[in-house]
Amino acid sequence: MKSDGSFGSMSDMKKINSVLVNTRYGVSETKIWIAFLLFLAISSCTKRSEEELHNISAYRPDASQAQLIEYTIVNTSITLDYRVNGVDYIISRDLNIDQGTFTIQPGVTIMFEDGAGILVNEGGALKAIGSQGKEIYFISKSGKRGAWKGITFLSDNAANVLSHCVVKEAGSSLNSYGRANIIVAKNNHPASVEISYSTITTSDN
Predict the structure, then answer these.
(1) Chain-centre distance of CA 195, in angstroms?
(2) Torsion sign across C-alpha atoms 107, 114, 156, 122
(3) Are 98 and 121 in contact (CB under 8 A)?
(4) Would you say residue 97 has pLDDT above 70?
(5) What CA–CA distance (Å, rounded) separates 142 from 116?
(6) How far apart are the C-alpha atoms of 97 and 67, rounded to whole Å?
(7) Which one is predicted more confidently, 58 or 135?
(8) Strands of the sheet with 89-91, listed across from one edge
C-alpha cells in the first residue's frame, strides 16, 4: 500500500492478505481488516478527486514553465496543447478570437492576469473539450474572485463547446458585457455555447 492509502498492484493486495491470514487474527477479523483497508483506499481517491476539481493548487501549482500568450487577436485556427504538469499558459491581456477555431486540448491549465479575458467574436469559435481526469482549467493567476473578465461569446458557431472544464474566479467589472465566468451576449446577433460536465464557480457575481 502506498503512503496515500492506495494500493500499488494486485501483488500488494496478495501480500497484505497473506500477512493477515498468517497472524493470530481469525477469518472474520481478517475480512474486516481487508474491508477497512479497501475503504481507506477508495476514500483517499475520492477525496483527492474532489480536491483536484476545486483546488487548483492541489495538483497543478507550478507556473514556472508556463508559456505567456501576449497576442491579442486570433485570425486563424490555433490549438493549445498540453505542455507541462502544471500551468501550461498565462494570458496577460484580452484575447479576441475573430476568425477560426481556438482549440484547447485536454488537461490544459490557463491562468489569466487580472483584467484579461477571452472574447469570442462572431467569426470565431472556442472549442475546449477535456475528459474525466484531464479537465481544462481557466483560472485567475492572482486567485482572487472577480480578477479576470471570463469568457464572453458573441459567436453562434456550432464549434463553441466547453466540456469537462473548470472556469472560476472571473467576473471583473472591466468586462462591458457583464460580470460572470461565462457570458453569452446577444447584441444584434445570436450567440451560443454548448456546456457539459463542467464546473463554473467562484465568480464575482
Answers:
(1) 14
(2) negative
(3) yes
(4) yes
(5) 12
(6) 19
(7) 135
(8) 67-69, 89-91, 109-112, 136-140, 165-168, 199-201
